[in-house]
Structures are given as C-alpha cells and as structure tokens.
Amino acid sequence: MIEPYTALCIQNTNFCVRTYKDIQKNLDLICEVIDHSHYTRIEYPVRLMAIPEAGIQSFVDSQMDWEHKEVAKGLFNTTVPGPETEVLSKKAKEYGTYICGQLRALEPEISDELYFNIGFVIDPKGEIIMKHHKLQVFAPERSCVPHDIWDTWVEKYGANLDAFYPVARTEIGNIGACICMETSYPETSRGLAVNGAEIIYAPTYIEPYYSRGWHELQLRARALDNSCYVVAPNSGDWFMTPESKVPTAIHGGSSMIIDYQGQVLTRTTTHGTSYCSAIIDIEALRYWRETTMFGSWLKDLRTEQYKIIYEEPIFPKNLWLDPPPGYGKTAGRMAVLRKSIETLQKRGTYVPSLYAELRKEKKEKEEKEKKGAKAETVAAGEAEK
C-alpha cells in the first residue's frame, strides 16, 4: 500500500542565462527553495518535488534566436545524467524524495549536434530512473524532438509506448512527464496514462497564454481525461537580460497541483519565487479508477475508431535528418508550420479566411505595380538612348 504523502511544486525566479555560471545561480536558488520548503513534512512526508521547465537554463535559446547546433556545442552541451542533475540528485538523497526536473541536453548515442528537451525523474538514491523527450515544441523553441529524427529514433528505441511515453514505476506511484506545450495536445497525456501513469509532471507555460486561462484549462482537462494527478510547477519571474534591474513575469507563476478528478488542490499566489504543496493519495486514485463507471475514461475507449484521425500525416517527420533551410532558427521553423497550414487547407480541414484572400490580392497588386514601375524605368532608359 502507498500511504498518502506530500508533493511540492518549486517555483523559482529565473536569472538571465548567458554562461554556465548563470545556470549555476538558478540551480543554487532551486536548492535553496527545496531546503526551505521541506519543512512541509510536518503534515505528511514530502516524497515528491517538481521543478519547472526553464527553471535551470531559462529559455535563452528561443529568446536570443540562437542557431540550434551552435547552442548544442555550447551552453546546452550537457547530458542527463550530468553535472546539473547531480546537484539535484544530492538533494533527492538528502531528503529521501523523488525529484522531477527538466533540462535541454544532448543524447550522445543519437547525436552530438542535437539537443533535446528532457524531463526526468530522480529517485531517493539519486539515480535517474526516467527520461522523457518532449514531443511537441513551441514554434520558437529550438529543441529536437523524436519526430524530427523519427527513423533513427524508432530504429534505436522502437515504436512503442515506452519509446515515446515513458513512465517511471515507483514506490510512490507511476510518474510520467508532459512538458509545457505538450499539455496543449491531449495525445501526450493519454499516451502516458495508457502506459500506466498516475502522476503527470507538467511543468511551465508562458504569457500571454497563462493569463488567458489556457494552461489551467488544459492541465485540469488532462487530469480529468486520464484520472491522473497533475503536478505542474511553473517558472517564476525572469531577468530577461544581464542588465535587467527587475524581472518580468513572463511565465505567470501560479504553479498548481490537480487531482485525478480535475480539481485544483493548491496553487501559488505569486509569480515570483515560491512553492505550493498538496497531499497525493495514490490508493484513492486506484480505487476511483477500478470502481467508478463514469469519470474514469480509459475503460470505455473504443480505440479502432480513433486511429482514422491520424492516418494522414500533417507535420513532416525526420526534419533534423535532412533539415530544410534555417530549421535551426525561428524563421525556418515558422516556414514549416506555414506549409502545414497549407496542407490542412488543401485537405479541407481548415477553410482559408477572407483576410488571407485580401492579403493575397494585395500582394499580387503590389507585385504587378513593381513590375509596371520596372518596365517604365526600362522604357525611359531606352528612350534616353
């Protein structure tokens, strides 16, 4: 039996990152918050702590529009396990707790030129027991995802649940990870749940979408969809540049823990450095899943009828095996997304807007006027001769 325990969401201010020393400052602050929040064990034992995406390295690659392979050789030339996770491993051993975290890092067995966005779980012995490679990324995010190297990934790891939706089976429940934009896709959390997840570590979202309520809506839906606890630490304020006098609340804070019925158990009330805690009762979750006839959904799934939805691909795979021009920067990624939109319009999934038609007409008119002006210039030149 798993007795109830306390889970903590750590929410730390992000120092501006330009060098590895800046990364160490963020790690130091995270460790400080861990030390000062662990007194919460006066309720139930603290057996799970979660730190936010970007809490260690920030989103400097997206912010600065750095080219992917250059960052892979520089600031993100690290691994999981590695020096950053070793700092957290010491805390896991010190407090006898599991720690969920995130890093951008290389997978040397795959490539020394590509970095991934990796969620991980550290056990109380300080060992990395699970690594999840983010499957969906925000348009400006540089990280390689398994789909970008699909053929290589499948050849090495297989095309199965563990290859894409790994779950750590632990003495405090089964833990999976769904990082930032992944929460916007119900498929990732569903994959984790089908693979046995009971707790979904779901770190970080970003403004202005947090304040619009998108993230809470998605988190609560993912919890309810899959009868899972969702532990969702968000990043705190961010010192955007080395010269910043005050940080910007670009992430929105409001870290939260949600139960398996989609109810928010706790949340932080600030966008700065803070934490929140809630009681996790895995046995209650398991009893709910095996008892209720409405509200726990996996048992009802008629899977064959849903496969049809995904028979035709939308976003192209293997882009990092044969990258299109500029794919390592934002403009190149946006170009790929524009083609995906065109694909959906050609299929009739999307209907082109009137705005698009007007924009097309305007562009054609401007091009016609340019050609006319060029022709007049040429004609004038000929007349002078």
Structure notes:
The protein has helices spanning about 20-35, 60-65, 70-75, 85-95, 150-155, 160-165, 185-195, 215-225, 280-290, 305, 330-345, 355-385, and strands at about 5-10, 45-50, 100-105, 110-120, 130-135, 170, 175, 200, 230, 255-260, 265, 275-280. It is α/β, with parallel strands linked by helices. It folds into three domains: about 5-300, 4-Layer Sandwich (Nitrilase/N-carbamoyl-D-aminoacid amidohydrolase), CATH 3.60.110; about 300-350, no CATH class; about 355-385. The protein has a six-stranded mixed beta sheet. It is globular. The chain starts with a strand and ends with a helix.
Low-confidence stretches: none
Q: Which class of the largest domain in CATH terms?
A: Alpha Beta
Secondary-structure class:
alpha/beta
CATH-defined superfamily of the largest domain: Carbon-nitrogen hydrolase
Portion in beta strands: 15-25%
Which value, in Å, is the CA radius of gyration? 24 Å
How many helical stretches?
A: 12
CATH architecture of the largest domain: 4-Layer Sandwich
- Biggest sheet descriptor: 6 strands, mixed
